[in-house]
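User: Please predict the structure of the protein below. I'd like the answer in structure-token form so I can feed it into my own downstream comparison script.

Assistant: Understood. Taking the following sequence of 453 residues as input:
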Amino acid sequence: MSRLGPWAACSTLAVVMMLTMLSLLGASCSILSLLLPAAAVDGLPADAAAVSYEGYQVVRIRPATESQLTSLQVVLNDTELAAVDVWREPSRPARPVDVNVPPQVYPMLIDALKSRGLTYAVMVDDVQGHIHRESSKTRRVRRELRRKPAGSIVGTYASSADIVSWLNELAKTSSRVTLHSYGKSVEGRDMTLVKICNSTGTTKPIVFIEAGTHAREWIGHATALWIIDQLATSADADVARLLDAADWYIVPVANPDGYEYTHSTDRFWRKNRSKNNGSACRGVDLHRNWDSQWMKVGASGRPCDEIYAGPSAFSEPETKALRDVIVAAKANVKAYFALHSYSQAWLTSWGYTGQAPPDLDPLLDVAKKGADALMAVYGTHYDVGPGAVILYAASGCSNDWVKEKAAIKYSYSLELRDTGDYGFLLPSSQIEPTAIETWEGIKTAAKLILGIE
């Protein structure tokens, strides 16, 4: 469905200089790592340079019946409400639908909901205020870190520049870490694969983690960085066993252009930054661009839509490059975890159909035990099951391609905190608990898959 977000409300937009990262040569786990050049751009300019969400509110709608679900879909497809940004798609009765609503169409939306008997509530009444407060915290933390010779960004919503700098420093100080540029983004940024392993010189199974495909889902990036730090620096016996059993491949920022854009210009940008032929609207949804039932369901052929799947499968350099990394390593990859937000769900295949894969039972068994371990930390509940059943049907997703085409059995997508109190505006105070519990869940799943517990 068409989602133009703030573009429908803004006639002009300041052009912000983008960070350009230099290239990185590859290195294996058994040799000294080569380092990424640190970037010097702050990545978080004054609020005046960014898209404003002044007056926006996040509204939660609860369709109680199939009839109400259909009515809601009609409302959200109304071209006069095209500026409404759907954060949680309609999928089934009783499951909440969250929308970010600009002030100029708020009365129209509420009238439409009331006339159809749809229940709603305002979840976030000042979207721009939340953005401003979190931006202020981020700047303050960044200034504090830069006063130190090698400040850690773990537990923060870091900019692209700070992520590059931190990874460089980590690779210098940890013999477990090597950095590899596996390709260039649309705008020429390096895409970095972090390999973490002990130097035994033997071929091991691989656990692969992808994060940051959707630019606005900052908790995914932050959680991946937390996991990298744990694997690289922890002296915990659990981590030692995991490194003895497997090498860990982690992509913390799978969409570097989009992520930089969320820091510089539009906090809720989702897609990459491709220019689309014949359209002024930019970007492709990279999580709809994989060649797994591409464009079958839950994807759009309209470039202005948030879920635009691109002109063809693997049309984007970001997805093509990540695919090639996975193909090169697939003989050894035993588990794949894609980190997204939000919903608190541990998703198995398939995402594009309710029909179960033949090996669903072992997939669910590992997922349930992982979700139980996650919940044991702080009591955070995750739904577990196929994406098309638990959330909504969508095709062209990375985790389905990994299972369907790369034949990697244990492939999952994790929708991290929360369930909508903050949505994509999850406060930085929740980074640490989210990362800690997610890591417990992934550790438990990895142990089961690798057969070390």
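That's the full token string. Residues 127-146 form the longest helix (20 residues).
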